[in-house]
Amino acid sequence: IRKPPQWGNYAKALNNPSFKFLLFLQNSLYYAVLSTIGVVLSSALVAYAFARLRFRGSELLFNILIITMLIPYQALMIPQFLMFFKIGWYGTYLPLIIPSFAGNAFFIFLMRQYMRTFPKELDDASRIDGCNYLETYWHIILPLSKPVMAVCVVFVFMGQWSNLLGPLIYLDRTSMFTVAIGMANYVTRANPAWNLLMAANLIMMMPSVILYFFAQEQLIGGIASVGLKG
Question: Are the C-beta atoms of 95 and 170 separated by less than 8 Å?
């Protein structure tokens, strides 16, 4: 028997007192947005140094950076947890956000390969105009790198938005839980309301869909250009 769509399930999911979805949604946005900003800006700055600047040991440092990609996250969980616990960051968002501002090896590699395709005459022209390295990076290299940065923004945001393990390790209060933790806890309850769970799951997907909708032009062009120029 066909039944009409129950649109009221979305309102019930958002206002369910036993499942603080709006609070979890706010926490996830806070964590994902700050982490994305940190990863993209820091990775772009490091990639600029490796791609455009010449200094002794640059190739060695870059090779060491690439080697770090071989280390699985599971091997770093316990040392990182002990370090953050000893400095008093356990139970806060700091272990989830602050390391993002140290860059990400994969996105540094991706941006470096893209930035190396820019002609060196751009750097020479900027120095003639009186720009230092940071001004060249901010006014010339960074605007030209919008396609690859859009790729990184989408990948990082989607990864952080759906991240369950990191927040599960460091967050100890329900008021700080993200949507991923809230959904996992709700599923494990006895006799969960599956209609509300499915409605909340669809709402959880919307930020990623909206981000892709606004970034799709830059995203498609960025993936194509990185694949051709990298």
Answer: yes
Distance CA 93, CA 167 (A): 8
Is residue 95 within 8 Å of residue 89, measured between CB atoms? yes
Question: What is the per-residue pLDDT for 190?
Answer: 60
Cα(123)–Cα(169) distance, integer angstroms: 44
Sign of CA dihedral 69, 210, 31, 7: negative
pTM of whole model > 0.90? Answer: no
Using one digit for the tens of pLDDT, what is the confidence trace for 145-167? 988 898 899 999 999 999 999 99
Burial 69-86 (b: 16+ CB within 10 A, else e): eeeeeeeeeeebeeebee
Distance, CA of 25 to CA of 200 (rounded, Å): 10
Query: How far is 141 from 79, CA to CA, in rounded Å?
Result: 36
Handedness of CA 208, 214, 217, 222 (dihedral sign): negative
